[in-house]
Amino acid sequence: MRVLSGIQPTGRFHWGNYFGAIRQYIDLQDEDEAYYFIANLHALTTIRDSEELARNTFDAALDLLALGLDPERAILFVQSDVPEVSELTWLLMTGAPMGLLERCHAYKEKKAKGVASDLGLFTYPVLMAADILAYDSDVVPVGQDQVQHIEVCRDLAGSFNHQFGEVFVMPKAKVLEASAKVTGTDGEKMSKSYNNTIEIFENAKAMRKQVMRITTDSRPMEEPKDPEECQLYQLYSLFAEETDRLEMAAKYRAGGFGYGEIKKTIANAAESYFCEANEKRADLAAHPDRIREILADGAKRARGKAREVLERAQDACGIKR
Ligand code: ADP
Ligand code: TRP
After folding, report:
1. C-beta of 196 in contact with ligand 2 (< 6 A)
2. Residue ranges of the domains in the chain?
3. Where are the beta strands (DSSP E) in the chain?
4. CATH architecture of structural domain 202-273
């Protein structure tokens, strides 16, 4: 089985990115082959500052490696280092129905808000489909919001195969239900775009401050509460061991606790959860050449596979005969 996923370097990674996506990448890296890349071409649809994009791309590599992505077990690379993917995008674009892309949420939401959009945003799902198909990927671990894009990828692959023969492998999305939607400090989905994130590599003091900002209801302390209905409990569950989680649930049911106390427990749990990754990140940051080597090696391996798939697709549709 071949696993593949990409993550955009559009800012510092947050808890939602970790529990919704990155943790799965790490859990799946022992599959036959795992490909993970930093989607800088996709990020170009939002970041228009060259320094920022280059810095974020490098930082994303540092973050992923610090969180446990192991270049001995997975292939880590930068999207733009595999130009074959951009060529494949064109082949897929020629058969991509406008209506299908008009229904995709990133474009649709911008359009609904009256924000000007461009062809990059409109064709974003086609580039994403090429990313997936270029490596004969079977499984794509992502958060819930990316499932629609994987459906588009399957549609495009299906119609290409129908017209030109069995060229592409049909991929499947893999969503971890338990953490498909991590909530942010305002109770909505945690997202950079909503300004409600808690960053993984935030310094301890700032992280605590963010946790203390999480909105809660105004029910009295003594009232017993249903843990499943509380976003603080959901967040705590992401970090806690089973016994601690059950203890916390019992506390909710008994009542007589304050939300401030729960927030402190969450901050402590998060700090110890990411403590090792923080240390590892500092160590990696001191060796930037090593990171560049890892990415160059990853790109070389990824290109080998992408070239093979691109040639298969070109051959099938009458190019390069
Ligand atoms: P953001 O919404 O902050 O811009 P991205 O869209 O770059 O995050 O998401 C990167 C990955 O993290 C995707 O696979 C996405 O599904 C996952 N992800 C992002 N936010 C969350 C969240 N709040 N809960 C679960 N997964 C998330
Ligand atoms: N669009 C994805 C996101 O915003 C990133 C991405 C680009 C991706 N190409 C991909 C994810 C291919 C999975 C597979 O999170």
Report:
1. no
2. 2-180+288-317, 202-273
3. 2-7, 33-38, 75-78, 139-141, 172-174
4. Orthogonal Bundle (1.10)
